[in-house]
Design goal:
single chain, alpha+beta, 4 strands
């Protein structure tokens, strides 16, 4: 079964409120066995310049979706609302 990945592009607009998200989001990632492969500033060569880029690995597409839709991550998303601009995609890895 192929792994799956969250690809997130984020620009923080309210650093104080964003810390509330950062305080609880790791619980959801731990619960679903997520592994951070990349996180931080990135050089934008084309497209919108985001402040941060994040790549998170999951054991399966089902795990990636389960994490995103979990009560723990739903609570984290509520903390993140209004604190950043974000694009998040889930993609299945190659077999």
């Amino acid at each position: 079964m192929p792994k799956a990945y969250w690809i997130a592009n984020v620009t923080v607009t309210d650093p104080v409120a964003y810390k509330d998200y950062q305080a609880i989001a790791p619980d959801a990632f731990t619960e679903f066995g997520a592994r951070f492969l990349a996180r931080g500033e990135a050089e934008t060569l084309e497209g919108r310049p985001w402040q941060r880029r994040v790549v998170i690995e999951f054991e399966s597409l089902e795990q990636a979706h389960a994490c995103y839709n979990s009560p723990a991550y739903r609570a984290a998303r509520e903390k993140r609302a209004g604190a950043c601009d974000a694009d998040i995609a889930i993609i299945e890895g190659l077999a």
